[in-house]
Amino acid sequence: xxxxxxxxxxxxNCVWDNPELIYKFDRCYFIxxxxxxxxxxxxxxxxxxxxxxxxxxxxxxxxxxxxxTKENLLKLRETSYSIQNFDFYFSNLKKKFAQNEIENKIxxxxxxxxxxxxxxxxxxLEDLSKALQENLDMIKGKESVLQSIQQIGTRYRKTLID
Length: 162
What we know:
This protein is mostly helical. It contains 7 helices and no strands. It has helices at 2-17, 33-48, 54-64, 70-78, 86-115, 122-140, 149-161. Helix 1 runs parallel beside helix 2, helix 1 packs across helix 5 and helix 5 (86-115) packs antiparallel against helix 6. The chain starts with a helix and ends with a helix. The model has no long low-confidence stretch (mean pLDDT 89).
């Protein structure tokens, strides 16, 4: 779990220093709630035209999640990273996210489905199979080119800001 925290921190620091990177995130790849809440805070500040600095992130972030404190953000900012390595960090974040989805959601739900009494819910198992394949593709770096409405909206907001 320690490595995913560091990967999340590296991604957050890159976004903090280059907020336009927010639009690379077509969905929540953060496993920790606090990582996602910090990301959402950075996104909110950037899209509102508010300067992304420690005081603003603490103020807006703490209203979203009480564990976002000045001390925690200072520790986050101490994490070593290089903006040139963002693509590497982002790729690793997506892989860890996919691995976590497979381990903690898909496999557990599949086990529940196949061990339940009565007939198998084939539709649910097919959905789980598709989710498994999507996550395996993410790990292999072969994500689908089809995009959800949310992903299209995210790209559109980036275009508007640009």
